[in-house]
Amino acid sequence: EYPLGLFLEILEDPSGELTIEDVTSQEFSARFIPSQVEVPNLGFTDSAYWGRIRLRNESQFDNDWLLAVGFPKMHYVYLYTQVPGGEGFSVKQSGILRPLSTRDIIHPRIVLNLSIPIQSQQTIYMRFQNSAPMTLALTLWTPNAFWTESQLELGIYGLFFGILIGVLFYNLFLLFSLR
């Protein structure tokens, strides 16, 4: 698990019309502002925001990673990764206002597959658009760590709702037996 907030560089797009070609140009490259917090919270805004993260895979074994957006109500998320060979970008589109089929992994959070070749460096760009609070909680996970954490989280939710249902039945029992 690697929180990416302190490695994130952010660019505000008030018009929402910038393209990947625009933000990767020299003109806009200098406008990215490094994040000073682990979870950037940009509040309610009509602007789109671009994020740039330079990732270096120094592991010996993992080239497949999962990029999780910690704010599950993000309306639109675009992930731009460089096409092998260096010409252009491939894009993945996700978010809660897109069909579930656009997600790489069916999960309550927005989770995208990310391939970073072993012993290499890659710059990824992300575009976020939301009419709810703009919270950019990004985490890079190895698949095993992600699924372990997810199972623990779902187990806690199951325990909570199980106790809640037990209390409901207990109160219904008291209602009908003491009436």
The largest sheet is: 6 strands, antiparallel
Total beta strand runs: 10
- Proportion of helical residues: 10-25%
Order of helices and strands: EEHHEEEEEEEEH
Distance between the termini: 54 Å
pLDDT averaged over residues: 90
The gross shape turns out to be elongated
Q: Low-confidence runs (pLDDT<50, min 5 residues)?
A: none
Q: Would you tell me the structural class of the helices and strands? A: alpha+beta
Strand fraction equals 25-35%
Annotation field: number of helices: 3
Write structural notes for this entry.
- The strands form 2 sheets. Strands 3-2-4-9-6-7 form a 6-stranded antiparallel sheet, with no helix packed on it. Strands 1-10-5-8 form a 4-stranded antiparallel sheet.
- The chain is of the alpha+beta class and 179 residues long.
- Strand 6 and strand 7 form a beta hairpin.
- The radius of gyration is 20 Å and the shape is elongated.
- Helices cover 24% and strands 33% of the residues.
- It has 3 helices and 10 strands; from the N terminus they run E-E-H-H-E-E-E-E-E-E-E-E-H.
Question: Which features characterize this protein?
Answer:
4-stranded antiparallel β-sheet, alpha+beta, 179 residues, 6-stranded antiparallel β-sheet
Summarize this, please?
This protein is of the alpha+beta class and 179 residues long.
List the helices and strands and how they pair.
Elements: E1 2-3, E2 8-13, H1 20-23, H2 26-29, E3 33-34, E4 48-57, E5 64-69, E6 76-82, E7 89-94, E8 110-115, E9 120-129, E10 138-141, H3 143-177
Antiparallel strand pairs: 1-10, 2-3, 2-4, 4-9, 5-8, 5-10, 6-7, 6-9
